[in-house]
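quick one, 449 residues, struct below
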Amino acid sequence: MSNSVFFGAIVAFVFGIIFGIKELISFGGILILLLILGVIFLVGFRKMLIAVLCISFVFGFLRVSVVNKDSVLEKFVGKKVELEVLIIEEPDVREKFQHVVVEEINSKENIRITLSRFKDIKYGDTLKLRGKLELPENFENENGITFDYVNYLGKSEIYTTMFFPEMEMLESVQASKTKHYLFEIKEFAVKEFNENLPSPHAELISGILLGTKQALGEDLLSDFRRTGLIHIVVLSGFNVSIIVLMVMTALSSLPRIPKMIVGILIMTFFIIMVGAGATVIRAGIMTFLALFAKAFYHKTDLNRSLFFAGFLMILINPLILLYDPSFQLSFLATIGLVNFSPYIERKIVKIPGWCGREIISATVATQIAVTPLLIFMTGEVSVVSTLVNLLVLPIIPFVMLVGLIVVVFSKLPFVLSFIPTSVLFWSLEYVLHVVKYFSQFDWAVLKLI
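---
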């Protein structure tokens, strides 16, 4: 299939999804389009490109039409209810509370509940909840930009919420043995960081390496946002790409096929360990595919692979196209990494590789790709973002590596664990100092709306 037909089909499919979600065309319009398609086939296959575009558009529209948007629990909104639920995702622990996605046992419908952060719950627990069901509501940021929170939750089939309900533990079950052991490793690592490092250094390395969202505090999180560095705290595609790169480098002595198989297995275990959230899964797929194709194929093949991966993700859940910022940013960042990074790297070839030339080029490339969308979503742009990213991101792979060493050496005698722990502390101190210094300026963020 030629590139024009391939990319045209993907774009037409995307437009079909958009028209379906926004209900910009009726089923009558689709029937007319199908009639036109029939005429095209009768005229001859020389019009194949138009036929492929029409088919792709109709396919996208029809895919949205089968998305389940019905809520069984919505009729109980505003009422106090008693529900038995199963925790289906790892709790998202914040400074004062935790968000948990649960599945109501009878209806099999998802609910997002908010609990005190001190409630001892985990993935796989069965709970009895007593509280009032509510509908999620959209909200505005400080710049007046509305975040479509209703559809953001709706893409995950979450239509109701519950805040601080009474909770009773019914059964604490062990999930799959694989998840159980991997979660234990994660909990052990977080515990060791908390015991060996002060706050907020311990929380920062846990966020960078394991994706935990522990109590960094709203002020510090705001500083990370103002400097455009929030992505390193929440295990974004950048962190995942570093881990993929580290794994592939460690396996570089293996033949090509075994290296890819072992790399995929290691990354799969890592993704499960950090909670197997949709964001991490997508970031893992995109970055692994990017690095794989970058190593073995030409840029044209890589773009085809990335667009095909995006197509598969949208096919599985078409709502992420419009209502999942993490998918949108991950996709754009990867496109920037693939298409802009090689050009930038050639321009800075005088910078030695050991100084992080590849990371510098990747940083600038992804910043170029995602900045327009960030402005559209937030109404502001971080003036210092590129500079801060250039100052911080080159040492993040080192920080992650030392963090792993600290966990491995944590049970060794103090004289052996002291050095890596000290190195990790001062590395994190540098990151925090850069963030706090640049976030203090009023001009650090430029409001555009």
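The longest helix spans residues 414-439.
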